[in-house]
């Protein structure tokens, strides 16, 4: 089926059909009605690539993510996809792997693909590169703050979320709390550590340097850090992880070492990934509605594409209490000499 056949069926010129499909000019309502009826009758599907070339658009939203295999970014991308449902746009995602050079290459690839807009998920690429991209096309940043693009940044109050965790553990009687943080070059990891330390001070608790370790937000790093803490000779009754994935890894180490959760040790995460409610026991964590962040990023980019100003409020995360935390019970806390 071709555009010419639609035009013949509707009794109009092919150029009229083209203008209606591309929305490039006003067409009389009777002609529009005839063309739409012909399209429906003939089951005509316009060539998206041809439309894009004609209109100077690709109908794609580029997403600079970090790791396509990560549950966090997977849920975020799923949210972006949902936010684009019902529009002519689809997403095109490329990973930067938290490496500035790879992120620059990924960004340039998306620009060469002539995406109509960009969504950037975190990353360590220099602000100047994002500022230059924002001068060329609509851009929204998730989980990262840029002073020059503050109105296009979708942020979570990570400090508030982590303070809620410490308040919860302190209320359960925990005084010696270990912490596994993320890589500090990442904005959210820095904020979560700040929130943990502030929460400890506010609760009148001491931050023990030997109980402060750093992972890389992966399950493996949580597994390894938990082993290091257990072997370190410093007792603790709760373990606070800066994301769910590290908490999943830490839980495996605790299981293999015979440390019961929460009877011997309370365990917490951050993000409330889909799997958090299905761990054994279900994980107490901080919900920042990862998929919702993706949906809001998509909605913001669509508003920018329509020459509107998006509203991007700071997300206030909420503590989700499940069975991985409980009162202090162990007479001999894990990690002691």
Which structural class should the secondary elements be placed in?
Answer: alpha/beta
CATH fold name of the largest domain, please?
Rossmann fold
Tell me the domain tally. 3
Q: Give the uncertain stretches in residue-range form.
A: none
Strand order of the largest sheet: 2-1-3-4-5
Assembly status: single chain
Q: What would CATH call the homologous superfamily of the largest domain?
A: Response regulator
Organism: Deinococcus detaillensis
InterPro entries: Cro/C1-type_HTH, HTH_LacI, LacI/GalR-like_sensor, Lambda_DNA-bd_dom_sf, Peripla_BP_I
Protein name: LacI family transcriptional regulator
Keywords: DNA-binding, Repressor, Transcription, Transcription regulation
Structure characterization notes:
With 337 residues, the chain is α/β, with parallel strands linked by helices. It folds into 3 domains: 3-55, lambda repressor-like DNA-binding domains (434 Repressor (Amino-terminal Domain), Orthogonal Bundle), CATH 1.10.260; 60-156 and 290-318, Rossmann fold (3-Layer(aba) Sandwich), CATH 3.40.50; 158-288, Rossmann fold, CATH 3.40.50. It is built from 12 helices and 11 strands. It has helices spanning 3-10, 14-22, 29-42, 48-55, 71-84, 100-112, 127-136, 158-171, 187-202, 219-230, 244-256, 290-305, and strands spanning 60-65, 90-95, 117-121, 139-142, 153-154, 177-181, 212-214, 238-241, 266-268, 285-287, 318-320. The strands form 3 sheets. A 5-stranded parallel β-sheet has the order 2-1-3-4-5, with helices on both faces. It has a 4-stranded parallel β-sheet with strand order 7-6-8-9, sandwiched between helices. A two-stranded antiparallel ribbon has the order 10-11. α1 (3-10) packs across α2 (14-22), α1 (3-10) crosses α3 and α8 packs parallel to α9 (187-202). The chain starts with a helix and ends in a 17-residue tail after the last strand. The model has no long low-confidence stretch (mean pLDDT 90). This is LacI family transcriptional regulator. Residues 1-55 form the HTH lacI-type domain.
């Amino acid at each position: 089926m071709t555009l010419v056949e639609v035009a013949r069926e509707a009794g109009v010129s092919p150029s009229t059909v083209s203008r209606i499909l591309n929305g490039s000019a006003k067409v009389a309502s009777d002609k529009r009605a005839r063309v739409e009826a012909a399209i429906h009758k003939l089951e005509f599907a316009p060539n998206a690539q041809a439309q894009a070339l004609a209109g100077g658009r690709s109908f794609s939203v580029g997403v600079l993510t970090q790791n396509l295999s990560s549950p966090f970014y997977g849920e975020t991308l799923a949210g972006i996809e949902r936010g684009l449902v019902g529009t002519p746009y689809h997403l095109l995602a490329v990973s930067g792997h938290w490496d500035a050079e790879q992120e620059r290459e990924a960004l340039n690839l998306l620009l060469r693909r002539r995406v109509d807009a960009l969504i950037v998920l975190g990353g360590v690429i220099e602000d100047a590169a994002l500022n230059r991209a924002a001068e060329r096309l609509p851009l929204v940043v998730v989980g990262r703050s840029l002073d020059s693009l503050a109105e296009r940044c979708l942020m979570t109050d990570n400090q508030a979320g982590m303070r809620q965790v410490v308040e919860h553990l302190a209320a359960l009687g925990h005084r010696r709390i270990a912490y596994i943080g993320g890589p500090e070059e990442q904005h959210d990891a820095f904020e979560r550590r700040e929130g943990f330390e502030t929460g400890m001070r506010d609760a009148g608790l001491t931050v023990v340097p030997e109980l402060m370790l750093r992972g890389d937000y992966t399950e493996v790093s949580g597994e390894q850090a938990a082993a290091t803490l257990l072997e370190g000779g410093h007792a603790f009754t709760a373990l606070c992880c800066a994301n769910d994935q590290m908490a999943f890894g830490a839980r495996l180490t605790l299981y293999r070492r015979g440390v019961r959760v929460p009877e011997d040790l309370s365990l917490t995460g951050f993000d409330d990934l889909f799997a958090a409610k299905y761990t054994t026991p279900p994980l107490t964590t901080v919900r920042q509605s990862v998929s919702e962040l993706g949906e809001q990023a998509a909605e913001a980019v669509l508003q920018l594409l329509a020459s509107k100003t998006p509203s991007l409020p700071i997300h206030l995360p909420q503590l989700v209490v499940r069975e991985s935390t409980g009162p202090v019970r162990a007479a001999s806390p894990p990690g002691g000499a």
